[in-house]
Amino acid sequence: MGSVHELIEQREELDRRLSAAHVEFPATKTIAASQPPTYDGLYKATLKDGQVQLIEFSRGKWAHDGKKIVGWRGRHIRLSRTQYELLLHAVHEGRLAADKADARLAALWLARFHAVHAEGPISPKHELQARCNACGWYEIARRLGVSFDSTPGESGELPMASSADIQAQERSWSRLPASDRVRITQLADGFADGAGLRLEFD
Question: Could you tell me if 186 and 118 are in contact, meaning their C-beta atoms sit under 8 angstroms apart?
Answer without folding.
Answer: no
